[in-house]
Amino acid sequence: MNPPTFAATPLVRRKLRQERLARAVLAGMVLAMVLPLAAIIAYLVIQGAPLISWAFLTQNPSNGMRAAASGRPWWGRSTSW
Amino acid sequence: MSDPPASLARRTRSALALWGERAVELLIRLSGVSAVLFVFGIFLFVFLEGAPLITDIDWSKVIFSPDWYPTSRENVRYGVGAMIIGTLSVTGLAMVIAVPFGLGAAFFVSEFCSGTPRETLKVVIELLAAIPSIVWGFIGLSVVNHLIQRLLPAPVGLNLLNAALLLALMSVPIIVSIGEDALKAVPDSYREAALALGATRWQIAWRVLLPAARNGLLAAVLLGVGRAIGETMAVLMATGHAVNIPTSLFDPIRTLTATIAAELGETAVGSPHYRMLFLIGLMLFTITFAVNLLADLAVRGVRRQ
Lengths: 81, 305
Hints:
The complex is a heterodimer of chains A (81) and B (305). Chain A is built from two helices and no strands. By secondary structure, chain A is mostly helical. Residues 76-81 of chain A have low confidence and may be disordered. Chain B has a two-stranded antiparallel sheet with strand order 1-2. In chain B, helix 1 (15-54) crosses helix 12, helix 5 packs across helix 6 and helix 11 (256-263) runs antiparallel to helix 12 (272-304). Classes of the chains: A mainly alpha (81), B mainly alpha (305). The A-B interface holds A 15-16, 18-19, 22-23, 25-27, 29-30, 32-34, 36-37, 40, 43-44 and B 100-101, 104-105, 107-109, 112, 121, 124-125, 127-128, 131, 135, 139, 143, 169, 172-173, 176, 200-203, 205-206.
């Protein structure tokens, strides 16, 4: 007999619409940061991964640094080069 | 009236503990003072290296002229006007992109997420800050450059827009994490009161949290600005590094920081060119100081209302 207590008034519908819109826009903003990050990391890995090898990391460069394994990038010292 | 009984007599600490306490206090005080001392020491060093040139140059020309010919044989000119405009324009454009995105993301992470998604998003966004600036420059040079050339009517991809995009992505994690802290500092009773009135999350964020947290959010934005002004390597690689007053988004520019980085290694110690680069360092000091002072004044002004 009673009318429904919580019928959505136009005001409620409008604020829920705004809420959905805001959530979508803000999520889009977060996505605009996360996607470039993922793309950058993927790009670095895809471009760099084929060249990483144990020889690259542990051995001195060979063939006047022209061989593919031109390595030990983090040792930095040039004494043996 | 009478002396306390012997069992309640004050127990003295051993000499070792007493002196240890004093030593630790001294150490803490020294480390506090040392931060100030180091800053002044750095300022003094930069100032003294540049000082002999201060009276030798025409400052109105230096600041307003775009002619930067430090190695000219005939007519040496040290005009940094174009670089000042370059620094300001790239920082400004980066902030136009980064501030809405950074604050939006801070609101999303803090108010629209909870539990695992929130923690994951925070970690992922902070990963952006973990990418070294040389890698950003490398991305600008090898990826963004080509994208801009292909998608936009720009003859060269190394320009104002490229560097501003990189700087925006670099300063966004700072804005997000500090802005999120600022939102977290707003008492939950504010949110509960708004919820009890029937507000949606967006209404809470826009009508309650934004005014309540504006000091913290302003601090977040200004720290982002500081990050963008001081950045060197990424802008050196991505701006095109041409002394030029930009008239469009696609013009190459040069910043104050990148000039120092690129030229200091090529100058003779003590030469006018060398001293001029230190004076540029002083200008950067001044700009950063002005930004911080402005931040302080703004935050205080906001609080007084």
